[in-house]
Amino acid sequence: MTDSNWSTSDLCDAFYRDPGREVQIFDNGMQSYGGKAAYFGPVVTIGADSGSALSLTATLETPGNGQVLFINGKADPAHALVGDRIAGLAVKHGWAGIVLHGYVRDSAELPAFDVGIHAWGTRPNKPAQLGELVSGQSFQMAGVTVRPGLWLYADRDGIILMNRRHDQA
Which SS3 state, helix, strand or coil, does residue 105 take? Predict the structure, then answer.
């Protein structure tokens, strides 16, 4: 599937029959910061109750293979989790996108990176210490249940999660 033959609106028209089953729609409020306005891929999750910034770096240094990384920062407004350096790693290693239950920094530079990035907003300071990040967590965010293995589709109309990949609407 290419970025040009799907839209979140068309996918919802085709598959939104039973909320929470085939299509989950994110509540409004997330902002787009990356250079890709539309992106999709299988979901990988990590949670901030357990990696440090180095763990986030190590995760993004692995081959992304078009996946979307969800970071559960618990919407903590005390700091940003992703900035220009982290976005650069995501592009370099082939990640399709990053969705943060948290905040970004370097927002003026992030559109230059060919990766989708969604977050609640911006904060200028980086985290002092996150602790260890745990991969494979399921969590609640923006009205949906995020878990590894789902497929994310994001564009200017919104963000949706689906149980499987859909090659056409």
Answer: coil
Model pLDDT for residues 112-122, shown as the tens digit of each residue: 999 999 999 99
Q: How far apart are CA 100 and CA 80, in angstroms?
A: 10
Q: Which residue has the tokens 């763990």?
A: 55
What is the mean pLDDT of the segment spanning 148-166?
A: 92
Instruction: Confirm if 158 and 8 have CB atoms less than 8 A apart.
Output: yes
Give the pLDDT confidence of 34-70 residue by residue, as tens digits: 999 999 999 999 886 534 454 788 889 999 999 999 9
Question: Are 103 and 119 spatial neighbours (Cβ–Cβ below 8 Å)?
Answer: yes
**What are the angstrom distances between the C-alpha of 75 and each of 72, 121, 138, 139?**
8, 10, 15, 12
Q: Give the model's confidence band at 4: pLDDT under 50 very low, under 70 low, under 90 confident, else very high.
A: low
- Between CA 66 and CA 40 the distance in angstroms is 8
CA distance 9 to 154: 10
pTM of the model: 0.88
Q: Which of 74, 110, 107, 108 is nearest to 89 (CA)?
A: 110
Could you tell me the end-to-end alpha-carbon distance of the chain, in angstroms, rounded to an integer? 11
